[in-house]
Amino acid sequence: MVCEECDSTVNKFVAFRALCAKTDDYFRKLVTEALAENDETQAPPNETAIVGETEVQHNQLEESETVTNLRAAAKEGKQTVAEDASKKLCDICGAFVAELNGHRRVHTKEAPYACDYCSIRMTHKSNLLRHIDSVHLKRIIKRCEQCDKGFTSYFSYGSHMRSHHSTEKKYECKTCCKKFNHHSSLWLHNIRTHQDERKYKCTTCGLPWKTKESLRTHERSHSSEQPYACQHCPKRFKTRYGWKSHELTHTGIVFSCQLCNKTFRYKTLINAHIRKAHPEATATSS
């Protein structure tokens, strides 16, 4: 850790040194490339004839264009270097970042921005606004041109297009040859299906999980956090699965038992019913 005055001095010195080094390296590279191109385009001495006035003017024009291009490229390089020089040095990890205070929250785990609708807190205000729009306000920002389904984020829209309207699945599992539209889906498939490593442990009960997302979902069972709100009633839920299952009850959809005439509002209830009332069917299927 360093004081603010020393931190400012170090930032200025490092930025100045980086500016000088990058400018010199970039200009030297441009000059070397330009000289190499000129050597390639020059004719061999034994084949050179009498050069007319028109050809001399043409060569001078080419040289002036080269100089102009060099100056333009050097100007662009200086702008890039200037942008890099405006970044500040993180005294915790040593990375150069544009917004130092926001970056430091990655290390301190500070989350100053609280959601007005649930107990979630965010490290950046922009992330909080996106959370409110997509989770609580359900603001649709993009619709599918093919099926007219609305989406609250461009990420979910892109996932929908690849999953439902893509003709080719690009990512194939090397173990079972199953194919997926997304690299992340293949990654999760490998972890959940072909790996048994559980390195994420709950700090409350010690139960191990395969992924961070699974651990975060489980940890809500130890807290009062309920980030998922029903659009039709005041009920809130800790998990996305419970939230989606509940919202189906407002659509009038019921799940019927194929072995008797009973119906249930939740799919989990019909599964429990089959295990209890029809154990022979469960034994047969297993």
TrEMBL record:
Keywords: Metal-binding, Repeat, Zinc, Zinc-finger
Pfam family, one: zf-C2H2_4
Gene3D superfamilies xrefs: Classic Zinc Finger
Signal peptide start and end residues: none
Domain of life according to the entry: Eukaryota
Domain C2H2-type stretches: 113-136, 142-170, 171-199, 200-227, 228-252, 255-283
GO MF assignments: DNA-binding transcription factor activity, RNA polymerase II-specific; RNA polymerase II transcription regulatory region sequence-specific DNA binding; zinc ion binding
GO cellular component: nucleus
Protein name according to UniProt: C2H2-type domain-containing protein
